Amino acid sequence: MKRFIENYQGKEFDLIVVGGGITGATVAYEAASRGLSVALLEKSDFGSATSAATSKMIHGGLRYLATYEFGLVRESLKERRVLTNIAPNFIHPASFLISVYKKDKTPNFMMKIGMLLYEIFSFDKNRLWDKSKKMPHHKSVSSEQITKMFPNALKEGLTGGQMFYDCSSHSPERFTLAFVKSAVKHGASVANYAKVEDFITEETPKQKIIKGVRVIDEISGKKYNVNGKLVINCSGPWADLLLDKVKKKSDNQELRRSEGIHFVTKKLIDKHIFSGSTALGKHYFLVPYRNHTLIGTTDKEFVGNPDDYKVTKKAIVELLDDVNNSFGNSEKIKYEDIVYTYGGLRPLVEDQTEDVYNSSRKYEITGEKKNGIEGLITVEGGKFTTSRMLAEKAINKALKILKLPIKKSISKSNYLYSCNIDNFEEFVAQKQKQYSEFLPEQIEFLAKSYGTEIDEIFSITDKHENCKEVLNADGENLAQVQFAIRNEMAVSLSDIMLRRTGLGLLGHPGKKILESIAELAAKELNWNSEKLAKEIQIMENVFKLPE
Predict the structure, then answer these.
(1) Is the pLDDT score of 355 beyond 60?
(2) What is the 3-state secondary structure of 268-314?
(3) Whether residue 475 sits in one domain with residue 335
(4) What is the pLDDT of residue 352?
(5) Is residue 96 predicted with pLDDT exceeding 70?
(6) Which domain holds residue 38?
(7) Fewer CB under 10 Å: which end of the chain, C or N?
(8) In this structure, are 449 and 511 located in the same domain?
(9) Cβ of 304: how many Cβ atoms within 10 Å?
(10) Of 324, 358, 392, which marks where a domain is finished?
(11) Does 159 share its domain with 261?
(12) Are 292 and 339 in contact (CB under 8 A)?
C-alpha cells in the first residue's frame, strides 16, 4: 500500500470517504468492491481512535435485549457469523461467564430467559465456512462451578450464572487494516495522515453542492483539492465537527459522545471471559489477553472537543473501584498492577436517554439534503460488529444518489485480504510444522495477526538475521516492523507498536526492545537523530500511566 495523496494529480473519484476507522474502512471496501472509484482519507492513522479502543469482541449485544432492541441484536448476531466467515484468523469463538449476585438488578431466572432469547436470535450461528469454529449452546452454572473456574470471584451473594459463547477479535487494529487492504485490492486510493480541512463547494441560492474536499498532507504539509462526486462522512466522534464546515450555524446539532476506557493487568483469569456488574447495574468484562487480563469498559458521557480527549487517572480509578467492589476476594487490583491503558470516544445517535450507557448502538445513514447540501452523506453511530452491514446500506444509498445501478454486494461472501483460510486450526498446524524453530503458540499468534501473509513475515527473517530475534512471549519480531513500513503505510513508532503489531499493547516492552524497534524504523524511514529521539519520547509518554 502507498499513500496516494503524495502523487495525486486531480482525478475525480466517484466517492470520497472521510475517516479511516472501521466504518470508513468498511465503506471504502464495500464501494470499491462494487466498482466505484474510491478515495479514503484518514487524518491520523487507520483505526487509531475509536476502532482501537474496543474490548476486542465481536458480539450480538446481549444487553440490548433489555431495551427491546431485538432488530439490533439479530443483525449483530448475523454479522458476527459473517465476520467469522470472512476473517477466520481475526474472529474466534470465546466463552463468556455472566455472574449473578443477589445485589444485581437482573436475577438469574431473568438471565436464563435472556439467554434463551439470545440462542433463538442466533439460530444460524453454526452455519460457518470453517467448521472448526463451531459454537456450543449456553448453559446455566452454579455458584460452586463459578468459583472453581474463577477462584478470585467474590463468593458472598453469588447465586450462579450463565455460560455462553460470543466472539473475540484478535486485533481490532489489524482487522480494520484488513478492510483497508481489501479496498486497495479492489482499486481504492487510500491515505493516512491526510486531514480533510474543508469541503469544495458550488453554491446556488438554495443549496451547496459538494465537489470534493480540501486536504492537508500531515507528513509533507502540502495541500490538495481532492475531487469527488459524492463524499461520505465516516469520521465517528468528529462527524458533527466536519459537518459544521458546510452547515449553517443555526442548524448545528452536536453529536453525543461516550468515553470507553480499558486497562491491562497481570494475569487474573485463565480461560473464560468474566462478566460482572457494578452497583449501578453496568457491566464490565475481565478478558484473558496474551497471558494478561484486559479489563473494561466504561460508558460515560464526554463533553468537549474529541481532539482534546485523553484517558485520565480519575476515569481509571473509577473503573478500578467498580471492578474491585464486585470482583476479587482478599486481594484487590491496585493502580500499580496496571501495565497499559487506553480509551476512546464512541459516537451515539440517540439523545433520548439520560445515561449514555443506555443509549442505543444503532446507526444512521443520512443525506444532507435537509440541510441544503448536495453530494454529502453522513454515517453516525453503530458498533464494530455491524460495520460491514452499515457499509452495505451506505453504498446502496450512495449508488442511488449517483444514479448508478445497484450492483450486488460481495463483502459477505468473500474473504478479506489475507484471510482466505478454509480451516484455521489446520492452517495453524501447517504453519507450526513449517516454522518449527518457533514455539507453537507464537506461530498461532502470528497466524491470527497476518493470516496468509505470515509467510511474508518469515521470508524477511530468512533474509535478515537481525529480524529473527523474538521480542516478546507472543513471538513478535523486527520483521514485522520492516513489513509494517514497507507494506502497510506505517510512518511512526505508534503506528508500528500499537496498530501494525502488538509490541506496545502490553505496556512498555523494555528500553532495549523499544530502541531496537526505533532504530530499524529510523533506518527504513530515514529519520535523523532528532526525529528518532522524538518518536521514542512519544512512545514513552504513551506507556506512562496518567498521573
Answers:
(1) no
(2) CCCCCEEEEECCCCCEEEEEEECCEEEEECCCEEECCCHHHCCCCHH
(3) no
(4) 46
(5) yes
(6) 4-50+173-254+362-401
(7) C
(8) yes
(9) 9
(10) 358
(11) yes
(12) yes
Say if residue 196 is in the same domain as residue 141.
no
Beta bridge mates, 13: 228
Residue 360 has pLDDT above 60, yes or no: no
Question: pLDDT tens-digit profile of 474-494?
Answer: 999 999 999 999 999 999 999
The CATH number that applies at residue 295 is 3.30.9.10
Residue 210 lies in a domain: yes
Report pLDDT digits (tens) over 198-228: 999 999 888 899 999 999 999 999 999 999 9
Cell of residue 172, nine digits: 481490532
250-262 average pLDDT score: 77
Asked whether residue 72 is assigned to any structural domain, the reply reads no
- Give the pLDDT mean for 42-57: 96
By the 10 Å C-beta count (0-12 exposed, 13-18 middle, 19+ buried), 54 is classed as buried
Same domain, 143 and 265: yes
Residues 308, 439: one domain?
no
User: In angstroms, rounded to a whole number, what is the distance separating the alpha carbons of residues 29 and 12?
Assistant: 18
Cell of 230: 459524492
Contact of 395 with 409, CB cutoff 8 Å: yes
E-strand spans in 278-418? 283-289, 292-296, 300-302, 338-348, 363-367, 373-374, 376-381
Q: Helices 387-401 & 70-86, crossing angle to 10 degrees?
A: 100
pTM of the model as a whole: 0.96
Per the domain annotation, does 58 fall within a domain? Answer: no
β-partners of residue 417 are: none
Cell numbers found for residue 24: 470508513
What percent of the chain is modeled with pLDDT above 70? 96
Is the residue at 11 inside a domain? Answer: yes
Domains held by the chain: number? 3
Cα–Cα distance, 473 to 458 (Å, whole number): 17
Task: Give me the CATH number covering residue 450.
Answer: 1.10.8.870
pLDDT tens column, 10-26: 999 999 999 999 999 99
User: What average pLDDT does the chain have?
Assistant: 93
Give yes or no: residues 249 and 352 share one domain: no
